[in-house]
Amino acid sequence: MQPILSVRGVSKTYASGHRALQPVDLDITKGEIFALLGPNGAGKTTLISIICGIVTPSTGTITVMGHDAIRDFRAARSVIGLVPQELSVDMFETVLASVRYSRRLFGKPGHDSYIEQVLRDLSLWDKRNARIRELSGGMKRRVLIAKALSHEPDILFLDEPTAGVDVALRRDMWKLVHRLREKGTTIILTTHYIEEAEEMADRVGVIDKGRIILIEQKTELMKKLGKRQMLISLQEPMATIPTDLDEWHLALEDEGHTLRYVFDAQAEHTGIPSLLRKLAELGIGFKDLETSKSSLEDIFVDLVEHKEQAA
User: Fold this and answer.
1) Which of 151, 157, 161, 273 could cysteine-pair with 106, CB 3.0–4.6 Å?
2) C-alpha span between 255 and 268 (Å, rounded)
3) What is the pLDDT of residues 57-74, one digit of tens each?
4) What is the pLDDT of residues 169-198, one digit of tens each?
């Protein structure tokens, strides 16, 4: 399938010599939700800003729905909606007028029924005649999303869409993203909230220090790199872990009441039977065992730490 967005060798080095983005290759297919995951300052916003034409790349090419995003900027930008991190709206304008204005900027004819639906989806319809400066921070964020959707883009970029917003808005955002995907919209979001990527994404890209570490299907990533952990609830609290248990690299938690063992569920030998035998030999009793999968956050931390150690 032809990608709806193709990035080849895109990098950014500023005049100061700071290299904000290493050469990036990335293909996005129509209708997918792609999450670019990384800490603050990793290069997420730089990459999005380049694709959206806000920042000029130092090297590379970008193709959006067959349009060269650098040579044919207007055509490429016309199919892109962008929700930036920072609030950039006329605070004295009303919600409805601001969204209508954004639509007209892209040469779209008036379509009040569409704008009404967007505002209703974002719980803004009742606030349509309110001035933006009168709204809460969360409502202002919703206005940014409405403006980005005003011209019915095929690709929507969400740059840290729920940074600093309440849980209710975050959940509303997730629901909206899924509804947009059902309509065929392609969505690329940057986030440092691990649960956001875990909840919404089909694929996950991990970026750190301007370099994309990996791109993988979320389910495959968690299957290949995910670990499991076993929590052992002890009958008696333990002050220190006996040296006889060193080979399992256990951690003592809950004021000595719990041992945590991290293991690779895909490995031929997990080490669990031998650990339980050793506990019995040492006379260490336990009253409960609990296993759980690692989260995407665990995987992300492991990946970044591994790359730092290898550097």
Assistant:
1) 151
2) 32
3) 999 999 999 999 989 989
4) 777 778 888 888 888 999 999 887 777 777
CA 49 – CA 96 distance, rounded (Å)? 26
Tell me the C-alpha distance between 188 and 200, whole Å: 10
Phi, psi (degrees; rounded to nearest 5) at 84: -75, 165
Identify residue 144 by its one-letter amino acid code. Answer: L
Name residues whose C-beta falls within 8 Å of residue 54's C-beta, 6 or more positions apart in sequence. none
Cα end-to-end distance, the chain, whole Å? 36
| CA atoms of 179 and 289, how far apart (whole Å) | 40
Instruction: Pick the closest to residue 81 from 192, 221, 183, 172 (CA basis).
Output: 183
Residue with tokens 């995907």: 181
d(CA 161, CA 163) in angstroms, rounded, equals: 6
Q: Which domains does the chain have, with CATH numbers?
A: 5-223 (3.40.50.300), 227-293 (3.30.70)
